[in-house]
Design a protein that fits this description.
Radius of gyration: 20 Å
Oligomer: single chain
Strand order of the largest sheet: 2-8-7-6-5-3-4
Bound molecules: 4'-deoxy-4'-aminopyridoxal-5'-phosphate
Distance between the termini: 54 Å
Number of helices: 11
Shape: globular
Length: 340
C-alpha cells in the first residue's frame, strides 16, 4: 500500500525540518544560551493534567511584558504559537527572506499561500517591495523577525510600522532575540495597533529545553487564537520551571549582558580574520561571509566546532551563535586554523 497517496498534497510536498543533532564539542549552531539555570521547583504531581490556562505563568509573563494576563498566551515554544497563528488567521502569509524558516514551513504544512519578500542589500525591509506585496497580495498574516534570524539586524522601526499600518491583516513581530538588542522593541506599541501581535520566547535566554513561548497582544485577538490551542499544550514541569525562571531576573540579565559583551569581542576578532565579512548583530549570533563557506563549515566541524551553514539561503555565509568566552575562543582558533 502506498501510504504517500493518502497524504494531503500540501504535506506530501514537504520535507521534514532537519533538526539533526551532529555531536560536537562546541555547539554554536542553534542560537541557544551557553548559560543554563539550576532551577529548584519541585516537580508537580505526575497523575494530574497541567493547568490548561497556565494562569500562574501567564501572570508572571504579563508582569515581565508590562501587560495583563489576558494579553498573554503561552505555547510549547513560539514555534507552536506560529502554528496557531497560521491556523487562526490563514494566508496569504507574508514574510521577508531570508528569515526564520518556520513561517513558510508552517504556512505550507497548513496549505496556505505564502508571499516571500527578499530583503534589501543591507538586510532591511525593502519598502517599495513591501508596499507592492501588501497592495497586490493582501496578506492576512505577516511575520517579521526583528532582530532577524539569520541576518542578525533589526529592521528599521519606520518600515515595520509602515507595514503594520498598511497590512489588511495581522502583523506578528517575532522578538525571539529582543533581549540582546539595543532597540526598545514593539511591546510599547501594542496599544496603538490592534493588528499587532508580538512573539517572545524563553529559548534564547537559557531555557530552550522547557519549550516556552509567549504571544502578546490584544485580548480580542488572543481569544481567537486560543480557540485553536490544544488544551494542555504546556506541560506542568515546563509551567512550574518557567515561573521560577521568570523570577530569576538578575541571573537572566547577567547572562544576557555576558553574551552581548562576548558578541562585541567575537565581532571584532572575526573582522580581523582575512577574507571574513561579519555583519552587524543585535542578536545572540553573528552572520558572516567567508570564501569557501561549505568547506569552512566542514573544517570547523572536524575541529569540534558546529556552526550553522546558511549557504541555502545566503550563499557564502555561516551563522555562529555567541557562546561562553572559551567556546568563542575555540571557534575563532578553529576558524583561523581552517583558513590557514
Ligand atoms: N522565532 C525565531 C526568529 C527563531 O529564530 C526561533 C528559534 N530558532 C523561534 C522563533 C522558535 O523558538 P522556540 O524555541 O520558542 O520555538
Amino acid at each position: 500500500m502506498d501510504i504517500t497517496r493518502l497524504v494531503r498534497p500540501a504535506v506530501r510536498r514537504l520535507k521534514a525540518y532537519e533538526a539533526r543533532e551532529v555531536p560536537a564539542r562546541v555547539k554554536l549552531d542553534a542560537n541557544e544560551s551557553p548559560y543554563g539555570f539550576a532551577l529548584r521547583s519541585p516537580l508537580p504531581a505526575t497523575n494530574r493534567y497541567p493547568d490548561p490556562e497556565a494562569r500562574e505563568l501567564r501572570k508572571r509573563a504579563a508582569r515581565e511584558f508590562g501587560v495583563r494576563r489576558e494579553n498573554v498566551l503561552v505555547g510549547n515554544g513560539s514555534d507552536e504559537l506560529i502554528y496557531y497563528l497560521v491556523t487562526t488567521f490563514g494566508g496569504p502569509v507574508l514574510y521577508p527572506t531570508p528569515t526564520f524558516v518556520m513561517y513558510g514551513a508552517i504556512a505550507r504544512a497548513l496549505g496556505e499561500e505564502t508571499v516571500e519578500m527578499p530583503l534589501s542589500e543591507d538586510f532591511d525591509l525593502d519598502e517599495p517591495a513591501t508596499r507592492r506585496a501588501v497592495r497586490e497580495r493582501k496578506p492576512r498574516l505577516s511575520f517579521l523577525s526583528t532582530p532577524n534570524n539569520p541576518t542578525g539586524n533589526c529592521f528599521s522601526a519606520g518600515r515595520v510600522l509602515s507595514l503594520i499600518e498598511r497590512a489588511p491583516g495581522m502583523v506578528v513581530v517575532d522578538e525571539a532575540y529582543q533581549p540582546f538588542s539595543s532597540e526598545r522593541g514593539f511591546l510599547p506599541l501594542l496599544r496603538d495597533y490592534p493588528n499587532l501581535l508580538i512573539l517572545r520566547t524563553l529559548s534564547k535566554v537559557g531555557l530552550a529545553a522547557l519549550r516556552v513561548g509567549f504571544l502578546v497582544g490584544s485580548a480580542e485577538a488572543l481569544e481567537q487564537v486560543n480557540k485553536v490551542r490544544l488544551p494542555f499544550n504546556l506541560s506542568a514541569p515546563s509551567q512550574a520551571l518557567a515561573v521560577e525562571a521568570l523570577g530569576e531576573k538578575r541571573a537572566r540579565r547577567a547572562a544576557v549582558r555576558s553574551i552581548v559583551r562576548e558578541r562585541g569581542r567575537l565581532m571584532r576578532e572575526l573582522r580581523r580574520v582575512p577574507g571574513v565579512t561579519a555583519y552587524p548583530s543585535e542578536a545572540n549570533f553573528i552572520l558572516f561571509r567567508v570564501p569557501g563557506a561549505g568547506r569552512v563549515h566542514k573544517g570547523l566541524l572536524k575541529r569540534g566546532v558546529l556552526v550553522r551553514n546558511m549557504e541555502g539561503a545566503l550563499p557564502g555565509c555561516l551563522r555562529v551563535t555567541v557562546g561562553a568566552p572559551e567556546e568563542n575562543g575555540a571557534f575563532l582558533d578553529a576558524l583561523k586554523e581552517t583558513l590557514r
